[in-house]
Structures are given as C-alpha cells and as structure tokens.
Amino acid sequence: MSARPKWYLPVSILALLWNLMGCAAYLSDVMLSPADIAAMDAANQTLYNSRPAWAVAATAVAVWGGAAGCLGLILRKRWSAVLLELSLAGVIVQDIGLFILSGVNPGSLVMAMQGFVLLVAIGLVVLSRRALARGWIG
To answer: With a cut of 50, which residues of the chain have pLDDT below it?
Structure first.
C-alpha cells in the first residue's frame, strides 16, 4: 500500500462521525412511539406515514453501510469501496421513496438536507475509488 495524504485520515474520521450521526437519526426515527408521531404537526405526520417500508430499509442500508464503509477507509480495507457504493445506492432509493413516490412535498429544508446527504455519499464513493486506485487502501 502506498502512503496516504495527510488529509485522508481526518476526512475518513469525519465521514465516520457523519455516518454515525445518520445511524443515530435512523434509530431515533424508527423508534418513534405512536405518541411521538401524534405530537408532530400534520405535515410531518403525513411525510412520516407516507414513506414506503422499502425506503426506510434503504435508509438503514445507507447509514449503516456508510458507517461501516468509513470504518473500512480508516482501516485501509478494500471492501470499504463496496460498502460506500451500497450506501450511495441506499441514499438514492431512500430519496426516490421520499421525493418521488410519497406524493408529499417534504419542504425545502428536508430537500436541502437530503441533497447534502447525497453529495456526501457521492464524495465518499469518489474518495474510496481514488483510494483504491492510488493504493491507499487494499
């Protein structure tokens, strides 16, 4: 394996922390009680209840695959690239369920956040492919 640039490890650690926050958000989302859902405003209740189960499952693939993939980047493992590609696929499938098939307008804040999530997932796939090509992982 070749030497990694100095920025590689801090970026990989930051990406792991980002994905761990996604894991925490996912867990808090799927553990909402009926009372928690009832306490939401009508728009958020509609958005929450309109998501297909497969889109929620895709969210799990996105966040857990992303966290494991980032751990793989830190450990310099080849398999991290596959997990980060699966994570990106999970984000895309989740967004299809949320934005296209739900029939609900999630609002500009949700759209902006999901856009940022998508950009980070793409960036991590690019990073993992570059790391493979340059021998930073293997």
So the answer is: none
Place of tokens 């990694």: 4
Distance CA 63, CA 69 (A): 10
* Chain position carrying tokens 């693939």: 61
Residue 39 host element (H or E): none
Helix, strand or coil, per DSSP, at residue 52: coil
CA angle centred on 53, ends 33 and 114, rounded to 5°: 85
Q: What is the pLDDT of residues 103-118, one digit of tens each?
A: 777 778 888 999 999 9
CA distance 35 to 78: 44
Token pair for 8: 């590689």
DSSP 3-state assignment of 106?
coil
Name the residue type at position 107. G
Cα–Cα dist 119/88, whole Å = 9
Tell the burial category of 133 from Cβ atoms under 10 Å away from its Cβ (0-12, 13-18, 19+): exposed
